[in-house]
Amino acid sequence: MAHLKPHFKKKPTIPSVEWSLPALFFVALQASAQTAETARPDASLAPVTISERASAVVADVGGFPDIPLARSPFAATVVDSKTIDEIGAVRLSDLFRLDSSLSDAYNAVGYWDFVTIRGFVVDQTYNYRRDGLPVSGETSVPLENKERVEFLKGTSGILAGTSAPGGLVNYVVKRPTETTLRSLRLETSSDGGLLGHLDMGGRFGEDRRFGYRLNAVAADLQSYVPDANGKRGLFALAMDWRATRDTLIEGEFEYSRLRQPSVPGLSLLGNALPPADPFININSQPWSQANQLDNFTGSIGIQQAINSQWRWQGQLGTQRLTSNDRLAYPFGCYDNNSGVYYADRFCPNGDFDLYDYRSNNERRQTQSALLKVIGDVNTGSVRHNLSFGVQGTRYRETGEPQADNNAAVGTGNIFTLPALPEAPIYQDPYITRKERGVEFFAFDAIQWTQAFQTWLGVRYSRLHRESAATDGSQSTAYDRSITTPWVAATWQLDPQTMAYASYGEGVESVVAPGRSRYSNAGQPLPALKSRQTEVGVKSTSDTLRWNVTWFNVVRPLWGDAGACDQPGTCIRQEDGSVRNQGIELGAGYSAGPWRLGASATWLQAQRQDGVINPSLNGMRPTNVPDLIVRANGVYRVAGVPGLSLLGTVSYEGSRSVLPDESITLPAWTRVDLGLTYETRLMGQPNTWSLTVDNVANRRYFKESPYQYGHVYLFPGAPRTVKLAVQTSF
After folding, report:
1. Burial class of residue 440 in the structure, from the number of CB atoms within 10 Å of its CB (0-12 exposed, 13-18 middle, 19+ buried)
2. Of 71, 70, 158, which is closest to residue 443 (Cα–Cα)?
3. Which of 6, 73, 146, 356 could bridge 423 with an S-S bond, Cβ 3.0-4.6 Å?
4. Which of 228-242, 554-568, 635-649 shows the lowest per-residue confidence on average (mean pLDDT)?
């Protein structure tokens, strides 16, 4: 992760094989033409139904695509495109205000997003999906062409061969519309930013067999932080072909670019918190350069009905990311007055050592293929909802030697921000990585009676990973097999209310860093298996929904034992675990002019059984608040047809800044308000919207990630006003 001390950074990775999407699409067409000939007459694909009823919401990220979320034994949050537009969200972190189990993990202006779910930072390489296929989160992901964003809350091993616990994020792409869509959205902000978004869709051809969906975005980013303006763009096209009643072929791609300087976090001033000033930009040197994140992602797929109960689905996906990651970043400080070196924070007077980091032409390529069969079978009075298949993934990450020379360019200060000389000496090797994996999986939702159902799932993964520095050093390679099971049971207490219990496992698998100070450098470490138990009750009707969930997650940890200051004096080993257990409460109401939602998560997170530094046992991990409460609402004003008032309230409790809990961030509350007005202009529908984020213009630190031995403090954004109009034509 380049925004941290780069010579300490570890970049987990996976995937790349040179598949040709046009060639694969041609093969899929040929296959569909053959299978369509032999399909049974009663075979047909299930129609896609769009519904605002909570009982009809489906979360693909859960692995059971035919079962509504209200009847599934796991917790998930689905944010649809309408809600994304209402709150003016443009990046993943903008959605965290809608769910109490989501929070920030290192979300800087001009960089990619990190999400914490249930107190665990999800892995950028292994915990992200796009239409169910693996993708890397190490890029800027636009939301304008996403139909919804799904957050799975819970151990993710059932859906990923290796992954961090906490959950998964799945982006679902907008697909062709049944009716003709012509929409243009124009937006401006109080910072002076401008955005234009064109959204077009429809069907054409004989029997309207062909569909399309086009999204294009151009944005001029005017940041509230000085010297952090940028630009971003998106071009996305999705198409489908209803080859027969039983065959649907889909293809889509998106290309996006973000070019914007990033803003590093602040840090402690000795033992004190700095001012929560969102306008301080340490990356404001005359030689500071913008980050550039290019993202090309595409997929093709085929869905084929076999008969009225069974269908198969094939998908091929590719992602190609190119990043130029540059930052003038602060790290530690030597205090000339006291002779003390503050390794994990700034000096008391605001001084810091400033480093010139540049990593150009980072390339990450992910290729994936999925073949899945879905269907129902009855064995006597017992009904099975089955899904099984195989998934292959390849990942490749390459780069060039970096400018990160373990030597500061000078001493900066957060209050004066003096100009310092640049030092772009490209001599730090980049760690290139390759990975390939094959995963076999099977799910079975067994309906024993009208009220009782059991759920079984298992995923077997075979992995091969290797890495090496660009100078040929630090070479590692290993193979590993992993099995992750998941079981659950549900009881339907009444037509609206269901109780469930589940148990699942996840696995994280790495090697010891290939640096000389490690006596086990490059050696595979034991696979660390996280375990989660979850019990919940959820109820959903047309007007009211509520849920109560208790979860308990135990995740083993790694640590460095030894002096670690000379070659061979350090060993990477398992070092105890962290237990995150808590209660999630959620409720929603939708009737008449009201649409309300609220959630609260109480989380008890605790280090345990550590041997390297036993004094940390019993301590709360850094950047994990003990309580998060979110509330949001929409009220349609009866006296003014078309006018709706919106509001969200977010509360996050105190969190530890240091591992020993000696310094904490205070709790904070933020209020966001808005309104929308729907009208018609020249016979066409128009929607005007006004949002005001952080209405009280409160100053606060929204997060305190402690990573790679350093404290980072990110101030919340100041009051921001956005005005947008969306019109059809």
Report:
1. middle
2. 158
3. 356
4. 554-568
